[in-house]
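Title: Prediction job returns without error message
Component: structure pipeline
Severity: low
Priority: P3
Assignee: unassigned

Description:
Job completed but the reporter wants confirmation the result is attached to the right record. Sequence as submitted:
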Amino acid sequence: MDVIIEGQIGTGNQDEKMSDLVSTMVELKNCATPVLRINDQNSDLSGRILFSQGGFILGAKLGMTGESGYEAVRKLLAIEVGNYAILDPARKPTTELNQALWLSADRVQAALPHLPQSPDSLIDKPDSDGNQAAYPRSKTGQIDLAGQIAAMTSPKSDSEIEALMKGRSGPEQRQTTAANSASRRYNQSNWRLIKFVLQMGLGLGLCYLMMTNSSAMWDGTVKICKSFGFDVENNALFSGFQSSMENWGKQKAQELKQKKNARKNNK
């Protein structure tokens, strides 16, 4: 958390009183939920208090014991000598500090330094006529579900239950397929074997055609090339390559004949 302001708490001229510090927290405009961190100089007591725009204290938590709620607020605001820091949580979560106490900061400031045992007199409640609270509550993203839960748990007629259930999706339905369905008959190992056999058959077939019908395949290649505008028969490169291959083949055949004749003579 970023530090906005820090200083000392005490009775000196340069120190701040706790009531002035609460007033400073309320007057902050650039931070929606400022956090007040307090450390007691005379003990190990320390903790943080969460404020909200509109002048409210939402909760607190002690550092050593982990105690939270109104009692933590009461102990921290009773510190007379120590140091403080006002923090901006930015986007960091403050859930552990938020107990939704909704204590009026003005009432807390007026009751300092001795806060009451019960927070009832400090909570911002609606007035006796049922109107809204005197201090407008800021939007903190929390939703009060107490009324909705009470309405759902109270007895209802069939029409009211149907109205509540309207718009809800039905129970989840599981769709299963039979063991002999097409989606379950696929076998990857069998498919690999079939693919290998097909590839080998195609390769052997091409080799057989090249060995037995070399002239026919050459004629077919010539026709295909001519259809695309390439005359390989009268091309010096191809004709020279073909003649050189023929001469090489004749030379190899003659060498084989000579070797056979030499073996016969040696016998």
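Comment from assignee: result matches the submitted record. Confidence is low (pLDDT under 50) at residues 126-132, 134-142.
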